[in-house]
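fold-stage: in
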Amino acid sequence: MYMHRNMTDEFIGSVASCNIISIGSWYGDLPDGVPKEVKLNRKDYYIEEIQHISIKETISVTYGIKWEHISKPVEGKIESFNTTEYLIEKTQKQFLLELMEHRFSDNIVLYGEDECAVQVQLINTEGQEFIYEFPFDNDMRAMSILFRQILGAPTLLLFDGNREKDRIQEIHIEVQKNIYQEYGDVNTLSFNWNRSSISIDCKSKQFGHTSQSHSDYVDTQMIHQLKQDIDFHLGDALYNLNTFSLSESNDLDRDPARGGVLTVRIKWAHKADTLYIGNLTDQYVPAWYKNLISFIRTHTRDKSLQEFLQSHHTSDRGLYTYCAVYIFKVDQEFYYRTDRNDIYEGDIVKVPFGSDNKVRTGRVESISYHTRYDVPFDLSRTKFIIDKDIEIIY
């Protein structure tokens, strides 16, 4: 390992505290402290991350960022935007200090011309300071791994620069469609990384349909390949996914009649759970979710996974069925759609009504068929008939 230091003597005594400053390429989305110009034109900048690990009475990690234009001689700023305190046992902290003491007491006198990415500042019990600078070195990978494991922080650059992405522990997906009070189709999928198991459960209260698929029927090798594909193709997207709730979506797309509600919870080995709650429509379902379902469906060949994607309410003839429904308590007719072929004029049906989709009872007055170009009411805003009402209406 090549390094240089500011003292001619090797480290002496016992380490009382230390600072580790490492600089590498920024990983993931840029934080709020970075100017909009840099975010929008990221390819035009060198963007570096500065990690300052301080081991004193406590252990803290401060993250900073520096940007510099590729062609313009304008230096960027180092913004301290996040500091995390790590609480570990005193024996563990002492172990890390002794590890540093042992490693940097070696008689290392060679100088490298590589650009230095790491600076280690050691202070012994006598108050003497020793500074070592060196490029990232894979010979110190084992020590970096130990640090990451003890601190529970897999994304630290440390001495080798080989940050490790956090590991997925479990992916849980829930899709609710046709949500009108007590009605609804609820589909759940749980993928446990550690037990290598997949459980799929599809229930439709509206149509009385239930299907279950458990990991007992899933091949272990297939699970292994599935995990590899998700890690390789979607690992970055899932790791960088921010918490998102439906309240942040467009008001129009909160209407469950427009597809349903999608909930994805990802459990990680170290960082807090990632929670995504969105609307199941073509416009808002993200690409990473479609790809995730596609991977699972390809490997498991489970046809029920189609229920986890957005519905396409079109008939085989490319026509849309519109029903004029007279709602009793409102004393008015409203248009509703249906894909069912067992609804006729005169049928008593239940429909969602109003902004809160309260279930109302009505009578089908007429049925008509239209292309998307001559529908009697906006195709995307027309709600669907829930079901026939078999109760006797007095």
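fold-stage: in (second)
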Amino acid sequence: MHVVLAVRDERRGRAAQAELSGGSSEVRLVDLADLDSVRAFADGLDRVDVLINNTGVMALPRTLSEQGQEMQSAVNHLAHFALTGLLLDRLATGTDLRVVTVSSVLH
């Protein structure tokens, strides 16, 4: 297996990577508050068998994303929708593909 950790903080991403065992892995930066960053991240992937969308910003002060969307909605929903859509053609080539989107227990 090869795991790509999509992270916003490289130091914390490397720490998480160190906890993985077996297979290979890489850490790649992505800013889910910026759809241009999401697109660049997706463009750098050749094949995807499993996509796990997981994020959780909550109770932010009113802030806008790079594209002018309300930040919590942009990060928790729009970025996942965009990333999944951008990767659909690479997901379609897998044999046991799946997309998992994780939400907060509060929802």
